[in-house]
């Protein structure tokens, strides 16, 4: 059911702001240049007008780069990264916090970016898979994943690696069992789990924060 | 996701005022449940009031116990030395919930406010009395869906066996709340009518005729902190969570135990169950029976029998009538180290 489609709603109860914006922008356009306006409404220009009204400023540091952005409240951190900043390393899996493919670090803590509204990261430091290593020099966890064949199709891998690094830095990689428990928020259907545990245990055995 | 307005609140007063001003405004804490509900259009908010900047994340000792700020993250509470020292049951329960990522996001206050995971609640083409009335509002165009309870006579393997009504058999999903119920916590809130404190047992409610109401908060009320009184129940604790996979799944049945033992004698004991009712289910009769008794399998069996009085299955969840008492016995054995 589409809540924007509330035609017939009594005006006394107050039409939603969004409906108002749609109607008012359409009306204004009709009043100016009718044929062009009708065309623009068909093209979804009213949506663009609404968006312009509803964006809010966001200052956030992503992979060490300070960003001054303008974001709609409903945009998640995941969609901001992928759609607005073209950082496509972070993957959209289930989009409901169940698979971990979208895991990134916010102020050093791993989170599900699909359930994080971008505007709640104001002033924060976000690290994605693009901030972990470079083509010339991979992050030790990326190297370990390759060495142990810790991925198959690779779709869940960026989230797995972000989680694996956090798992060690949180101090929760002291045994294969503990690694399994603390990697359980990253769910994939492939058979690389055993290899992922091996990769994490190897990086952990080298000691220190990574 | 539908569009909504977004306000950042810097003080509890500003947050309460922003939410009280209009219908369809919600506090946004960790968002691990709320954003999911908004994506699924079970809730269509007019405004989210971001309370993540409120200075309510401290965990500190008071004269009588530990005060946990409502905005403290689940992972921070679970790993905090004071919580591990005094309330290992709470630490265990928190770590049994969700995933590491979600525990880094979820807050204590938000955890208490999470909605049921009943699939009929999330699917607004299916009948649900819990979803029905609460989201309604003539100006919202909310997708209430048909009223009724799809789970009664439907797929109800995960559902309640205690305290149900003919309107709703959903279960409360939190692990943390089971521990807080067992530990006699109190909830400090503020709202349009000022501050008050609510006993944890009174915070969540049974469905009755109004399953849409999960708790006893008044409109606009904000959780500030949770007080957990210090006691002698820390050493003999266990949180047993029975679920469909080893990790990252909701409980079929969970049991929280905290006991004060002298030798083999149980001086005092607290018991609560999860996955069996619309709220954390405290086992008062079993507690009363066990006080002053030896920690023996026979006594645990008797306590479990007392705890199961009044339990009722709904078909697919009939197995819980056996699983629950067995889980109580096992949790008691592990907690009292008599396995």
TrEMBL record, chain A:
Give the UniProt keywords, A-Z. Answer: Iron, Metal-binding, Oxidoreductase
Q: Which residues cross the membrane?
A: none
User: Which positions fall inside the 2Fe-2S ferredoxin-type domain?
Assistant: 56-132
* PANTHER family, A to Z: OXIDOREDUCTASE WITH IRON-SULFUR SUBUNIT, OXIDOREDUCTASE, IRON-SULPHUR BINDING SUBUNIT-RELATED-RELATED
Give the protein's recorded name: 2Fe-2S iron-sulfur cluster-binding protein
From what organism does this protein derive?
Dyadobacter chenhuakuii
UniProtKB/TrEMBL annotation, chain B:
Q: Give the UniProt keywords, A-Z.
A: FAD, Flavoprotein
Coiled coil region boundaries: none
Q: Gene3D superfamilies from the entry?
A: 3.30.465.10, CO dehydrogenase flavoprotein, C-terminal domain (3.30.390.50), Uridine Diphospho-n-acetylenolpyruvylglucosamine Reductase, domain 2 (3.30.43.10)
Database matches in SMART domains: CO_deh_flav_C
Superkingdom is Bacteria
Please state the span of the N-terminal signal peptide per the UniProt entry: none
One Pfam entry for this protein is FAD_binding_5
Q: Where is the FAD-binding PCMH-type domain?
A: 1-233
| PANTHER family xref list | OXIDOREDUCTASE, XANTHINE DEHYDROGENASE SUBUNIT C-RELATED
What name does this protein carry?
A: Xanthine dehydrogenase family protein subunit M
